[in-house]
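A quick word before the example. In earlier lectures we treated sequence and structure as two separate objects. From today on, think of them as two lines of the same record. Here is SalK written that way.
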Amino acid sequence: MTSSSALPDRAGRHCHNVLNPFHSAHYFAPELGAEMAGLGVNGRAGYFVSRSAPMGVVGPGTVAATFYSFKYELIAEHLPQAWRSTTPQAVLEARLRAADATLHRLLGAEALESPEMAEAAKLALRATEGCTRHARPLYAAHADLPVPDAPHLAYWHAATLLREHRGDGHLVALLDAELDPLEALVTHTASGRGMNYRGILATRGWSQEELTAAQERLRERGLLGGADELTEAGATLRKDLERTTDRLDRAPYEHLGAAGVARLTELAGAFAARLMEAGAFPASLFDKE
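And the structure line, produced from the sequence above:
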């Protein structure tokens, strides 16, 4: 394994940040909604079942624990009821079809069949060889799935594994920082990197009253200012969170090595830029309010 000192500072984080859009674009795509509707799963339930399907038929408690930022009661409105209409295997097959269709629509066949895509898939899959399962439930469940044959779907699969591996570690960091789900969202938004408050209220199930209460708790801890900006202590906490997440997620990027990480970041960044240009993500969730 390559020494961590061989990697530039935050190289793994930068690589993850451009890998993640390739996986997450399908969550915002009409193709996923259509596939889920075909299984009798509609609305928000489609997200919950599609992301949790590798874990099998699980209830709202498991999803709340592993997704973290969603209100339990919102999840419980949809699970386990949605599993009466379909099965995890059917959802996994539908999710892969949706990802395939979404990527074809956004990037086109030429990009998906390019040598660069094949190279990105090879590098990303090599990085996943350094991931570990223990205490990483979402990653571990996805790691048991087969690697698709098509290079763009193999790359999507690898991006998924790397996303969930980092995400599982990030939840450990959030717990250590004593941030509950809504406080984590608020501090991320205040950092300028998270979705806006309108997006949080529209997608995560929290009420305005709960959001206001979370802001007040953060003010009492000296982490949030009167204009909902991070204080110096709050900014330090967010930086420490990311550094802890980097440390817990360093293994796959150490395994790939500095040259491999640099090349994968270059390739992934180009694909991510094209996804952004194609409108893969709704700007309304992230623009300033």
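Notice the following. The two ends are 45 Å apart (CA to CA). We will return to this example when we discuss secondary structure assignment.
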